[in-house]
Amino acid sequence: MSLEVTGKLEKFLEMQVGKTKDGKEWKKQQFIVVTEEKYNNIYPFELFASGEHLEKIDNLLKYNKVGDMVKVQFNVNASEYNGKYYTNLSVWRVDNSKRPEAQPATESFSEVEDDLPF
Q1: Is residue 112 scored above 80 in pLDDT?
Q2: CATH class of 2-99
Q3: What pLDDT score was predicted for residue 77?
Q4: ∠ CA(86), CA(51), CA(24), 5° rounding?
Q5: What pTM was estimated for this model as a whole?
Q6: Which of 78, 23, 10, 73 is nearest to 51 (CA)?
Q7: pLDDT at residue 104 tops 90
Q8: What does the pLDDT look like over 26-55, one tens digit per residue?
Q9: What is the pLDDT of residues 56-97, one digit of tens each?
């Protein structure tokens, strides 16, 4: 299931790092987004990366700052361990409204003027 939330990036929690049994490095960055909804407006997200995908964490921190408006696309994951159930909001994309890539294109092919004489 893929979901989407838009809100203000409230804060980053302390990054967690470690190594897998195979010796690959992993990182987990959690952050909080607050929406303008009246109720249920706080979302604790988690971005996990390992091996060759560690740049995901670096890019999250590089392009997003506390106070920015962001659109977060995520999945809801649940797991069971020793009879207890855990749920996390696992991020797979973050768009910052201040980044040029996040702005929609404003022109279409029909609006573009061309220099052709005919």
Answers
A1: no
A2: mainly beta
A3: 94
A4: 85
A5: 0.77
A6: 23
A7: no
A8: 999 999 999 999 999 999 999 999 988 999
A9: 999 999 999 999 999 999 999 999 999 999 999 999 999 998
Instruction: Give CB contacts under 8 A, 24+ apart, made by 98-104.
Output: 98/68, 98/69, 99/63, 102/71
In this structure, the dihedral spanned by the alpha carbons of residues 66, 70, 73 and 77, taken in order and rounded to 10 degrees, is 30
3-state secondary structure of 57: helix
Q: How far, in Å, CA of 33 to CA of 31, rounded?
A: 7
| Tokens 């994951």 -> residue | 77
Task: Give me the amino acid identity at 19.
Answer: K
DSSP bridge partners of 25: 19
Structural tokens at position 87? 């749920």
**Are the beta carbons of 68 and 97 closer than 8 angstroms?**
yes
- 5 beta partners: 72
Query: How many whole angstroms separate alpha carbon 100 and alpha carbon 50?
Result: 27
For 53, the 3-state DSSP assignment is: helix
What tokens appear for 86 in the block?
Answer: 């855990």
